[in-house]
Each structure stands twice: as structure tokens, then as C-alpha cells.
Specification:
By secondary structure, this protein is mainly alpha-helical. The chain has helices at about 1-70, 75-110, 120-140, 150-179. The protein starts with a helix and ends with a helix.
Length: about 180
């Protein structure tokens, strides 16, 4: 009888461990699926950015070719073409970074849904990240309107805000995966 009781206890513990293992496998598969979707969406963003950058370069090349046909001093116009190209390239880069962060926030939300219990600190941080991401939307959209006198300070602050937001998203995602 005693052996029977011990065997039942072992089977119960083994069954619970197996169920736990299956739940972990399902969660791991779901996390991998979310990661795959995130990578796919990020590649689309990168492809759009590359296309925008090629368009910027083509436009600058056309402007430079037009200036080559003009007689006289065109150094001021050439400088303007270069500045316009640099601004457009920066705008493309910032937009891609912002979009990528949005994809990663969305992935963090999906990964949160795989948790049995969702810690309040994760939910609070996720809401904070989404709010900050939305606040950056206008700044990213208005990059082309930044006056030359404020260009460096404004773009430095925008870069810093995007980098900090990206780091916070990474930290939250790591915490969710470790939970």
C-alpha cells in the first residue's frame, strides 16, 4: 500500500511538471512567434527607410546636375542642396527609429499577454512607453520644420529621447521575457 501511495505521489508530481513544461513550451513558442513578427515588421521599416534615402539621394543628384549647368557662382546653392539632403536623410532615419520603437512596444504588449500574471510595474511602464512614443510623434513629424538656428540642439534632444525610449523598451521586454 505504501508503494502505491508513493507511486501516486510521483505520478502526480510528474504530471504537474509535464504540464508546467508544456505551458513553458507554448509560451516560448508564442514569444518566438512574436519575435519573428517583430523582425519582419522591422525589415519592412528598414526597406521603406532605404527607399526614402535613395529618393533623397536621387533628388539631390538631380539638383546638383541642374546646378552644374548654371553659369556663375553656385556655391551657395550647392550648400543649400547639401543641407536639404542632410535634413531629409536625418528625417528618414528618425522616422524609421520612431516606427521601430512602436513595433517593439507593440511586441512588448503581445509578450505581456503571454504572462499568467501581469505585474503592475510592467503595465505601468508599458503605458508610460506608449504615451512617450505618442508624444514623440509630433516632434518626428516636424523635423523638416526645425529652424537652422536650433537644428543641432533640437536634433540632439530628439536623438537622446529616442535612444532613452528605445533602451526603456528593451529593458521592459527583457523583464517580460524573464518573468
Amino acid at each position: 500500500m505504501r508503494i502505491h501511495s508513493i507511486m501516486c505521489a510521483v505520478l502526480i508530481v510528474g504530471g504537474a511538471a509535464c504540464a508546467s513544461s508544456q505551458a513553458e513550451e507554448v509560451r516560448d513558442a508564442r514569444l518566438a512567434q512574436i519575435d519573428h513578427q517583430t523582425v519582419s515588421k522591422t525589415r519592412v521599416i528598414e526597406d521603406r527607410q532605404e527607399a526614402r534615402e535613395e529618393a533623397v539621394e536621387d533628388k539631390a543628384d538631380m539638383a546638383e546636375e541642374s546646378l552644374a549647368n548654371v553659369e556663375g557662382d553656385t556655391s551657395g546653392a550647392e550648400d543649400m542642396v547639401e543641407v536639404a539632403e542632410d535634413r531629409a536623410a536625418y528625417e528618414s532615419d528618425v522616422r524609421a527609429r520612431w516606427e521601430t520603437i512602436g513595433v517593439r512596444i507593440n511586441a512588448a504588449q503581445k509578450k505581456m499577454s503571454t504572462l499568467d500574471t501581469k505585474p503592475m510595474k510592467f503595465e505601468t511602464e508599458l503605458k508610460s512607453l506608449a504615451t512617450e512614443h505618442n508624444q514623440l510623434k509630433d516632434d518626428v513629424a516636424n523635423v523638416s520644420n526645425i529652424p537652422a538656428s536650433n537644428w543641432e540642439n533640437t536634433t540632439d534632444r530628439l536623438d537622446e529621447r529616442l535612444s532613452n525610449l528605445n533602451e526603456r523598451v528593451k529593458d521592459l521586454t527583457d523583464s517580460i521575457e524573464d518573468a
